[in-house]
Amino acid sequence: MVTNLETKKYSIKKQCGISIVAVLLIATVCFYASKFIDYRITALILLMTVSIVAIVFDIIPVLITAILSGLLLNFFFIQPLFTFHITDTEDILLFLMYLIIALVNAVLTFKIRQVEKKARDKEEKEKTIKLYNTLLNSLSHELRTPIATLIGAVDILKENNQTLSKKNQEDLLSEIDKASIRLNRQVENLLNMSRLETGMLLIKQDWCDVNELTNGVVQKFSSLNTNHIIDFQLNESLPLFKLDSGLIAEVLRNLIHNAVLYTPEKTTIKIEVLQESSNCIIVISDNGNGFPESEIQFAFDKFYRLPHTKTGGSGLGLSIVKGFVEAHNGTITLENNSISGAKFTITIPTETSYLKNLKNE
């Protein structure tokens, strides 16, 4: 059923004004067409107008419309015309039945809308509770694990600092480093999702060398010894793009991290940056196992993780990527490669500048 159609933004006075204008307009058209249509047909048309108003507006404008339409029907269409006096018994019955049906229709439609609103509110509440529980379950593991690692490693270093070999100390420091990075990533994802959900995300676009930006992100992953091959070739023909470099860097980090986390070791992760017309195109693909075709449509949902995948993610990364890309008025698509693996394609409309190349010349 048609719902409020966002008419809540109108005050009761505006709703009454729109309703009155609508019924007067319909009555005027019917009056000039009265030579061609019977007044009983006019009654049905006016009743339909009241029904439409009842679907979109609050109860007070609807009741006003119902009473006004009844008076207009009496005054302009029921004999004798231009008077509220009705001589024919059948017409009196028609008029009374019209008023009753119009008023009952208005009240019932309003009640139905109230029931629908309560059902929607209940559904939204259940959905919120479900997301809240999912978030808690995710945090209970994704935050507890790195924190436990940090506490354990620090305790061992404090208690056995003199007896630990240099290699053992380096191993513990490496574990602390990995746990810190993992913990920082989870906190950043939660903060980023909060910014997207509350509408507090502000885009700060400036001229950006996407080659340099991408290479910086890739170098950080290469230093982590992820046992994956990250293949990125500089595209010297690229212009400068006007983007929010911080958000695009976060998009790249999340997509590469997602590929590292869910593909086998020795998998090649390929990154390409292209220009097509006034669009910046970023393609990140791998030769891993890809996505089940039935699951691709859910990949960007909050807290979604592929069934039977290893732990290590909160299911926020790809939804954040989608939010950051759409904040640039761009799009992101996911598909499987023809041979193996997955491919993410980001398309962002943006301004370009070749001043970089002129400067180099």
TrEMBL record:
Topological category with respect to the lipid bilayer: Multi-pass membrane protein
Highest taxon listed in the record's lineage: Bacteria
UniProt GO molecular function: ATP binding; phosphorelay sensor kinase activity
Main location: membrane
Annotated catalysed reactions: ATP + protein L-histidine = ADP + protein N-phospho-L-histidine
Keywords: ATP-binding, Kinase, Membrane, Nucleotide-binding, Phosphoprotein, Transferase, Transmembrane, Transmembrane helix, Two-component regulatory system
Residue ranges of the TM segments: 12-33, 45-72, 92-110
PROSITE patterns recorded: HIS_KIN
EC category: transferase
A GO cellular-component term linked to this record: plasma membrane
Name of the protein: histidine kinase
Organism name: Flavobacterium alvei
